[in-house]
Fold GM19042.
Amino acid sequence: MAVEVVQETLQQAAASSSTTVLGFSPMLTTLVGTLVAMALKGLRDDLDDIDENDVGAKRRLALLDAMVEMAKNPDIEWNEKDIMDEVNTIMFEGHDTTSAGSSFALCMMGIHKDIQAKVFAEQKAIFGDNMLRDCTFADTMEMKYLERVILETLRLYPPVPLIARRLDYDLKLASGPYTVPKGTTVIVLQYCVHRRPDIYPNPTKFDPDNFLPERMANRHYYSFIPFSAGPRSCVGRKYAMLKLKVLLSTIVRNYIVHSTDTEADFKLQADIILKLENGFNVSLEKRQYATVA
Ligand code: HEM
């Protein structure tokens, strides 16, 4: 049913002469999710490598400072409106996506109480007798189980359920004698890629252990693409993971999460960002800790 919702959204966009999907042309040719894995089999791009090795202290200008500096350079065509556009993009991309991601993660913990118990146990191991202190960056590095819960949530409920690209040139696929012609709009449905039974056995089961290192090592590099991949992939993915960990850690340490819905009750709504038609029906019960006199 959920797949149908995504597909219906795409069809509606294709049928409407004025509608664009994520800013692309209405001339819509749908090449469903399998394409990305076929086309890119064995291929990785430079940005992903940089991303993996992106550790340690770096001296960089903050984005806003860099853009203001650029605006001062008479050799670069770049003005205040360009800065505002970029800031709007960051604000939109950074807000709705993480709010959908954290809401789905809370639903998952409310529904799968055994998993919530494991998340809480990990928090207890990290925070010990001081469960209500602020979370530090070092703490987040230890949250391995919570990280798996977040990744599994992004697998089943990717906040950006599809991406689109219009080809500027004929694209020869690496997977075989196929050429996708210039001008085609290619839709990649990460929602469907993430639920392929040949990649994820029992694909609809919420199982954070899908992200154990040994399982990840045995999967295609692009079998998990909630942040897209390549040169136009999400610039905020590390910040997003950090934000989700701090937020969910704080909520789970302070509250027990309950859900009145089961996953079978979910009615997915895919309008750019994936949501639930009837909202995220979770409730929070305050955790009681003994106070030190
Ligand atoms: C769970 C959270 C997030 C998810 C699932 C997500 C997903 C994505 C995806 C799939 C794209 C590619 C869209 C496309 O190609 O059409 C993207 C792009 C982008 N994201 Fe995120 N994102 C998240 C959080 C964030 C955050 C926190 C920020 C910034 C603070 C951010 C900033 C951006 C920007 C600026 C782009 C455009 C990059 C470009 O066009 O070169 N995202 N994101």
